[in-house]
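Dear colleague,

Thank you for sharing your sequence with our group. We've completed the structure prediction you requested, and as agreed, I am returning the results in plain text so they can be pasted directly into your records. Please verify that the sequence below matches your submission; if there's any discrepancy, let me know and we will rerun it promptly.
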Amino acid sequence: MTSAAAPQVREMTLADVDRVSEIRVRGWQWAYRGLMPQSYLDALSVAEDAERRRAGFGRGGPGVVNLVAERAGTVVGWAALGPYREGEVLTEEAELYALYAAVEHIGTGVGRALLQEAARRAEALGHPTMRLWVLEGNAPARRFYTRAGLHADGAEEPFEVAGVTVSEVRHGGRLPLEGSFPTAL
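Please find the predicted structure tokens below.
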């Protein structure tokens, strides 16, 4: 764990794609160990993720925001948010699509800074609530979101990863968030 000053949060640029992909892939490999098949996690490719991310950059649609957290000029976290997706329909609610801190920066306030800014942006865009999906077995992330005011609401959704069914649990809360914004992520 690296301790340092609070990270600066800004909008992601195309130049951030490689680092964001590295953070995302390494984050999956670290956080989902034991929750998803190891062969699947081992096969994740930073280069392939970056290629997909580059190809779709800026095409997220109206209201989609990608943020990065930076320390000393280095990207140390990434979050993405936009309208909540109810199947193919976009709702008035916000959805936190992703939030990842570089593994070596977990517990240093990166997740908190990204979540606070994502919630602020979602509220500024007129969203009354924010929702997100998190792996049921990812207890540290679930605690982080719950302490920030995003509580499990009873909705679950299974999906398949390399032949194994994995369940996600939906968390949500009204904006502005009234939680404690812990430093766990």
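Summary note from our side: The helical segments are 17-31, 38-43, 46-56, 110-124, 139-147.

Kind regards,
the structure core
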